[in-house]
Specification:
- By secondary structure, the protein is α/β, with parallel strands linked by helices.
- The chain folds into two domains: 180 residues, Rossmann fold (3-Layer(aba) Sandwich), CATH 3.40.50.1370; 151 residues, Aspartate/ornithine carbamoyltransferase (Rossmann fold), CATH 3.40.50.
- 37% of the residues lie in helices and 13% in strands.
- It is built from twelve helices and nine strands.
- β3, α7 and β4 form a beta-alpha-beta unit.
- The radius of gyration is 20 Å and the shape is globular.
- The N and C termini lie far apart (44 Å).
- The site of phosphoric acid mono(formamide)ester (CP) has 10 residues, from α5.
């Protein structure tokens, strides 16, 4: 493994101390995000600006004239999609967001087809990409890989932005963004809402990032419903306590359904199993079934970051409260907005 002088010291710093290092160097008070690595970099103010920009982009995209204008916004830019952990939605929504904005794209989706198979380190691969493009979006199985990439590029002569498209079990900040955007569009606001998160909360990175962002809103309450082995980890619970967000832990999913404004389902993340441990748990009591619709509030919504297995019955797909297909599409618009912000190209 390559040794990077200074990386260990940087990695050990408290998260909040690193944010300045991930900001655009020229921005006033270092407030503009340059590398998006952690959900906690996304302030309420910045998130609100992204919601408004995403709405504007999707409105412009309704006409050919608007679409032509959008395509000129970043037509001089090139992006690399480095997605070496499987992905459908994050990859396609970033790719299509690039297409909407006129950004040209390159991609690597499997290290078996890149020079990593010849022994090149992933860090050298990222430095190589920076020779060709203006922005890199990273999906990687290794926790902290996006952060290390940003650090490596900041040490180099080409510190182009890195966007974390999901890293290991820890973070998926752009998924949290699209989740908030979906709640805001569906319910009109996020303040005051009660969110039930269900499934594999321990290893689900979308839930971890979303929980942190919810702390930016007033009077939200979170119900974490999971088997004991897969409950939310203490680091997130401590963060919520520090931010004054009320939460409760339960293994009785059905008991929280009538109280929730948002049901956020997730699948078992068995790709992280060490010894097939997920198979030992009966997760059916954490599935949202058609019979549960009767106890769900009339104006509540059902979300899932997808891919799904059996967590939500397909019979529910056409219920107006099922928002997961819209949620996936919202990802394209909010990611387009994020890239415009990062590239400094808002219309
Ligand atoms: N929600 C999500 O990250 O989906 P993909 O793994 O398909 O990108």
């Amino acid at each position: 493994m390559q040794i990077f002088k200074g990386w260990k010291e940087f990695k050990a710093k408290p998260q909040a101390e690193k944010f300045q290092y991930f900001s655009r160097p020229s921005s006033l008070q270092n407030k503009t995000i340059h590398h998006l690595i952690y959900a906690q970099q996304l302030t309420r103010e910045f998130t609100g600006e992204l919601f408004a920009l995403a709405d504007k982009i999707r409105d412009m995209a309704k006409t050919k004239e608007g679409m032509d204008s959008l395509q000129r916004l970043a037509s001089d830019k090139r992006a690399m999609l480095f997605f070496v952990q499987p992905s459908t939605r994050t990859f396609l929504s970033f790719l299509n967001a690039c297409h909407i904005l006129g950004i040209k794209t390159s991609e690597i989706r499997d290290t078996a087809t890149s020079s990593e198979i010849k022994g090149e380190s992933p860090e050298d691969a990222v430095r190589t990409f920076s020779s060709y493009v203006d922005l890199i979006i990273v999906r990687h199985a290794e926790e902290g890989f996006a952060e290390k990439s940003a650090w490596v590029l900041n040490q180099s002569g080409r510190p182009i932005p890195i966007i974390n498209g999901g890293s290991g079990k820890d973070e998926h900040p752009t998924q949290a963004l699209l989740d908030l955007y979906t709640i805001n569009r569906s319910l009109g606001k996020i303040d005051g809402k009660k969110i039930a998160m269900v499934g594999d909360l321990k290893r689900g990175r979308t839930i971890r990032s979303l929980s942190q962002l919810l702390a930016n809103y007033s009077d939200v309450e979170i119900f974490f419903a999971a088997a004991e082995q897969y409950q939310m980890k203490d680091d997130i619970l401590e963060y919520l306590k520090k931010r004054g967000v009320p939460f409760s832990l339960t293994s009785d999913f059905e008991s929280v359904i009538p109280k929730a404004d948002v049901i956020y389902c997730t699948r078992i993340q068995d790709e992280y199993d060490e010894n097939g441990e997920s198979e030992k748990i009966d997760y059916r009591k954490f599935h949202f079934e058609e019979r549960h619709l009767a106890s769900l509030k009339k104006d509540a919504i059902i979300m899932h970051p997808f891919p799904r297995r059996l967590e939500i019955a397909t019979a529910i797909d056409n219920d107006p409260r099922a928002k997961y297909w819209e949620q996936a599409r919202n990802g394209m618009w909010i990611r387009a907005a994020l890239m415009l912000k990062i590239l400094g190209r808002e219309p």
